[in-house]
Amino acid sequence: MNASAKHPAFVVEVPYTTSPKMSRYAGPLIDAHPDPHYLEAKNHELALLGSELCVQQDAEQTQELIAKAASDLNLPEARTIRKIEDLALRLNEDVALLENDILTAICFCFPSSWIPAKRLGMPLAQIHHPVADGERLVQASPKIAHVMSDPQQGSFRRFVWTISNSPELSQHPSRKSNATPQRIDDLYYRLETQTTMPINTSQGRASLFLVKVEVCPLMVFWQNPEQRTQICASIQSMSEAVLEYKNLHSIKAFLLQNR
After folding, report:
1. Cβ(211)–Cβ(94) below 8 Å
2. For residue 23, what are the contacts with CB-CB under 8 A and spacing of at least 6?
3. Cα–Cα dist 250/201, whole Å
4. Which among 97, 124, 184, 232 could disulfide-bond with 141, CB atoms 3.0 to 4.6 Å apart, if both were Cys?
């Protein structure tokens, strides 16, 4: 699926940081009416790379928690939804389930340069370990996992943005491109809206992690002088490790030459 016609929020911060800035969130957790194009794109990705995108532990408790999450999200026939794939295919958002800080189920049809299935069975800190300049994120991960599974704490939300040379929602590692942009129209703004949802259970702690991926032409924001300046300043503040991790070296050079 290519860039969305609906523009995502502009959340570029200066300086750029990978710190775990999650804010309390009391709004709707999912899009009330899933976009048929999103669902079609998810089915397409699962047909191509399903074993790398979607996996869950074979445990009755995991299946029950998926059904409980579906019920908490007010999905029709929630009790029949016992596979993480079936849950993800009813939503625009990709989903992951954590039980006692361990990833036990995940269906990320639109990953960002990583292979979701390889993270099964990992605690949150280990999942975050590859993130460039992510030391604070890794250190905070046990606390984050505890807070996001506490029903009394409610839900939290954070945003992660980048610039990509691809309009595709999926940024699976097999599609990584080092193509140097020739014009601004070759670039795209990509935003992940990450939302947590605690699952009230008597069997330990559990939470659902929802990620809405949106992509639009960079020109949407680049044509605004203030937003263009903010994008350049944020990219200039990124470390070499972050630029490498986000595949932004050539993109950075091009943007700074054309600002």
Report:
1. yes
2. 156, 157, 158
3. 47
4. 124
The pTM assigned to this predicted structure is 0.94
pLDDT of res. 21: 80
CA 257, distance to chain mean position in Å, is: 30
Q: Which structure tokens are listed for 75?
A: 């999905």
Three-state SS string over 225-243 comes to: HHHHHHHHHHHHCCCHHHH
Q: Return the amino acid letter for 217.
A: P
Six token digits for residue 9: 């929020």
Question: Mind listing the pLDDT tens digit for each residue in 61-85?
Answer: 999 999 999 999 999 999 999 999 9
| CB-based burial, 237-246: b 16+ in 10 Å, e otherwise | ebeeebbebb
Single-letter residue type at 119:
R
C-alpha distances out from residue 137 to 1, 130, 211, 254, Å: 30, 11, 17, 29
Amino acid letter for position 81? I
Domain ranges of the chain: 23-257
Task: Measure the CA–CA gap between 80 and 70, rounded to whole angstroms.
Answer: 9
- CA nearest 208: which of 39, 132, 73, 95? 95
User: What's the sign of the alpha-carbon dihedral 19, 137, 164, 42?
Assistant: negative
The full DSSP string for 70-135 is: HHHTT-TTGGG--SHHHHHTTSSSEEEEEETTEEEEEE-SS-BSS-GGGGTT-BHHHHHTTSTT-H
